[in-house]
């Protein structure tokens, strides 16, 4: 499916556990700088837990040992790459299976194997057309849902605090479920039911598998399995309904049904896309608005572009391409928030990065959160500055990391489009304002979020 996209933290360690224990152990670090195991059984897992997240652990590790570092998960060697230069060296000969699909399929305990290169290319094209067609067919719906949220916010007094995370998750759930799975989710109760099951499954992916607590808790395990079963039941029902029939509304699942995929592939791919798209869209919308509230200049410039491109007309799919500064805002949001801080690949054959040999069947992490804050690549890396993406070379670097261009994952592309429509509606009518004294702390998981609710206020533009 996607080529880079991706995500982990402690969650990623579940992938390590699920994948690497299938291969022979090696205690040879091949001379790569790094740290020795803290414990024989757990390796450096205690250090990761102490750091707070895998991302924060990697930040410290790269600061201490350089762009190519090693550590241990259990008895398994893990190598992390933390600059654009070393990532380039590793990416070119290692474009194999997508790390996001591998990870989520492993965590969901799906068993279907990835196809060969031609099959993977065909499926990538299928997903790209699925995103394009579902967005075009449901554009009026997306605009309607955005305007409903605008009307809700317009009804608030200027001083009222708006729970941004809650509203963005609700908006994303409504948008994604209808565009991916169809008219069943026009019913708010169906959306609420899906959101509950989605939350149960997503919260257990990685966390419960990593520490073994899911298998130790009969109650939690049953809740997780019931939620996953209900999500699968919904998807199977929709897939069956869409087969061999034509609908005026084209949804993402239609593209999978019309492709040369078997029922299990359709189920797995629609599950992964549904789970990931909801959360990525919600968090991209949340962080974009958060950053806009902290920069009056950026918000003013975005408003001026929207006004110039759209005038008094509503946004259209064709006009999205003209909102160049809006795309820069979203790219800078992904970079500044470190939206997806870690990606992973299994080293299929022995490889070399810089002067170091990476043994076969080593897990190689792409420390994207480290790379996105590297001052040698991003001047003033902690500053939210969409203008940096005026530079074509900066966009090329971003594309290399999988956040734009041909390597952009379908879920992120989907989220970019949805967020663009929402911002075009909100910023045209509202000033988005921060709450004085609020400090938003970051939680680095599969997708980066705020630790607690993020509050904003809004005021009408006149």
From TrEMBL:
Heme binds at residue 409. Residues 1-18 form the signal peptide. GO terms for molecular function: heme binding; iron ion binding; monooxygenase activity; oxidoreductase activity, acting on paired donors, with incorporation or reduction of molecular oxygen. The keyword Signal applies. The keyword Iron applies. Its cofactor is heme. Keywords: Heme, Iron, Metal-binding, Signal. GO terms for cellular component: membrane. InterPro entries: CYP450_20A1-like, Cyt_P450, Cyt_P450_E_grp-I, Cyt_P450_sf. It comes from the Eukaryota. Belongs to the cytochrome P450 family. This is Cytochrome P450 20A1 isoform X1.
